[in-house]
Amino acid sequence: MKTRPLGKSDIQITPILMGTWQAGKKMWVGIEDEESVKTIRAAYEAGITTVDTAEVYGEGHSEQIVAKALSDVRDKVVYASKVFSNHLKYDQVIEACDRSLKNLQTDYIDLYQIHWPSGSFKSEVVPIEETMSALNKLQEQGKIRAIGVSNFSRTQIEEAAQYGRIDSLQPPYSLFWRQVETDAMPYCVENKISILAYSSLAQGLLTGKFGSNHQFAEGDHRAKNKLFQGENYQRAQQALEQLRPFAEKHNCTLAQLSLAWLIAQPQTQAIAGARKASQAEDNAKATSVNLSAEELQEIDRIGKQVTDRLDNNPVMWNW
To answer: Does 106 reside within a domain?
Structure first.
């Protein structure tokens, strides 16, 4: 799989990243560790050499699963992890990074990201200068190679960038969720900041596998996702029907079509989670779907039938 530069760093990442929130188990149902290890390994074998995790995914469990799957090929993969919004004081950032290094069984993390801005989820407000100071220190020590942010607005990225180089933004971004295009994307393009889109398949909605009356199992966080509710959900179903002919033409799945559209957007890579090895392999094949400029434009228009009716709140869940 052809790689791309991560921001202005010398790190090369794949256009599709393996997302491992589900490997942490918390807020997901029906996840088995053995299956998660197999799936992450299958992604690697299929050419996806960049893996995204976080300390908060099962309190380090996801990071441990990543290590189980990839420790023997550590020098061939790129690890991206994140520090949560309740650990943004100087000493907390250093401690959190050390925990993640231990969980990942490595002495460096390629990309270390602030998971949510300070103050999120009722966390203590910490000046961004303090957090960035700790991240810069970790970079000087060689414990991390690049600094990224996640769920930041343009204004928040600009503020963070005053205190150190930001190489990536991780926003929720898919054909059905596109606030980043009008907020942070122009700044990212201008400043060569990589966009690592999460929920790139709108939490599975873009796979087309959920019927019009789907009910989630108790404990599945997707039940609170705005896209799966009421008229939003019905509009999404109608859009999926319009996307099917494109998938058929390219002999690919709806998921592959959606990922191909996403990684064709400016500066954008897609983080795609998977529960099974076959899903990870399918995600990797999205890089082989070549959409023409006209097709990209038409798919764009179909997606906007959903996104134009959403409010401007960038958070995808009614938590």
So the answer is: yes
Strand residue runs (E) in 261-315 = 268-273
Residues in the chain: 319
Q: Of 44, 57, 112, 173, which residue is the catalytic one?
A: 57
Count the domains in the chain: 1
Domain that holds residue 61: 4-207+255-291
**pLDDT tens digits for range 172-199:** 999 999 999 999 999 999 999 999 999 9
Please tell me the predicted confidence (pLDDT) of residue 311. 84
Assess contact for 318 and 224: CB atoms under 8 A. yes
For residue 57, indicate whether it is catalytic.
yes
DSSP state of 224: G
Q: Which residue type does 185 have?
A: M
Of 263, 217, 190, 271, residue with least CA distance to 21: 271
Whole-number pLDDT of residue 211: 79
Interval 257-277 mean pLDDT: 97
